[in-house]
Amino acid sequence: MQQIGHQILSKWYQTNYNYRALFQYEVKEEGYIMGQLIERNEDILNVVIHTIRFTYRQGFQAYQCQDSALTTDSGWGCVIRVGQMMMAELLKRHLKCFYNVDLFSIPRLLQEVLQLFKDDDEMESQKGFVRPSKYGFSIQKIMRVAYKEWGKKPGEWYSPNQIVQAIYKILSENNITYCCGLGFVPFYESQIDLRAIFQEMCMVENCCCQQRTFSIEQFLRALEKLEIGKEEVVQVMHGNDSISDVCYDDQSEQNKKEIGNLIKKYICQKCFIPIRAVTVCLLSRIGCDQPNPDYIQAIRQFMKKKYFAGMLGGRPKEANFIVGFVDNKFVVLDPHLVQEAKMNPEEYIKSCFPGEALFMSDKEIDCSLGLVFYLNNMDDLIELIYDIQAHQQINFFSFAHLQHWKYQETKKEEQLQNIKEMKEFLSEFQVQQQQQQILNLEISTYQEAHQNEIEYFDQQPILKEIDSSYEEI
Ligand SMILES: [Zn+2]
């Protein structure tokens, strides 16, 4: 019975999916996906098909941990899948920005990175397991952590906070190869502790040279005096007049320079030297029942930034990985498609990429979400500080000193050595690899294939009816 239910669900998702796959979507106003400007529909597809997507899987061996007999995560694993998508995007970004390696130019590397999310993690599934699995972010691994932390059983739904916490645990307790040189800081309730970001980026807790202090408090007081939020208001009031736009750009560059100066003044430059990238995951609520339109506007501003690395969100009880926006819609990668867990390696890789972009009205979004920012260096951090100040008039985020945050001492020398080795390893990888393409990710192929589907689904019952049949299931 359960099996039949999954089949119906799967069919529904596939139908609904293709129906909504708006390949011929014409961009009317503006769009940004993963920080990249979208001007034509080809741009949407181009970014989306290079973003790793994970979906429900069926047919893996039963999760033997906690004596579960489940062989699929269909119907309950969507938040976990969204968490995996976040992590995959971060790894792709990290390799690109920090190590200067394009994942798509080295198929073997891509394969290895995807292996970290392997669906049939037999090592984790074994009872009484002793060695940690090499598959860093497999669903089994995530479940094991969640069971240990919250007694969560297979088949139970996760909140965005829980998946972020589980990933944070995995990252801080394991040495996962490609995560070398990447810090991860989760923040809850829209509060950001800059101290934590500096500490993670520079891998040092405090100034130890005694010459200068590490004073976030003084830094924040001085930052307030710059009155950054105010120009933004003036700019909005004056509209899009080109002259005031130029003034505004100059002003924002000037402000960023001043933020840089404040950092030099209040944060010891001798002890705080950035040595690694940091991911900031901001978990927030943007309303009680309905999302606050002002907050949605602020989110759209953040999505334009190059440090934007996706958003955990979706509709209520239906998680999606939100990758950007076009006009008044969010662009999402949907995990609610059931694929087979067992595939040959090439098929598996292809199954980890979406062939379509889905859209979701910004009013439908669930109020609980998590913005993900990848900060490669100090410039990115300055940019983020500026942007948060510029949006403060709606109190979206605030800087705070979080008592519960404690910097976890990690061996800095060891980390530096690992980063160096990783650089060498990746450059060898690049040399060895012939530039053969095993992936067929050309836009034209997708457009052609889906053009037929769009025509086919044009003759199908309207979306409303498909929706109501889903509710009956
Ligand atoms: Zn110092």
Helix/strand-derived category reads alpha+beta
What value does the average pLDDT take?
79
Query: What is the CA-based Rg, rounded?
Result: 23 Å
Bound molecules: zinc ion
**Unreliable segments of 5+ consecutive residues:** 1-22, 233-246, 434-473
Q: State the helical fraction.
A: 40-55%
* Number of continuous helical runs: 17
N-to-C CA distance: 12 Å
Shape: globular
How many strand units? 13
Q: β content, as a range?
A: 5-15%
Secondary-structure element pattern, one letter each: HEEHEHHHHHEEHHHHEHEEEEHEEHEHHH
The largest β sheet comes out as:
9 strands, mixed
Total tally of structural domains: 1
EC number: 3.4.22.-
Organism: Paramecium pentaurelia
GO molecular function, one term: protein-phosphatidylethanolamide deconjugating activity
Keywords: Autophagy, Cytoplasm, Hydrolase, Protease, Protein transport, Thiol protease, Transport
Features:
single chain, 473 residues, alpha+beta, nine-stranded mixed beta sheet, two-stranded parallel sheet, 17 helices, 13 strands, 46% helix, 14% strand, disordered N terminus, disordered C terminus, binds zinc ion
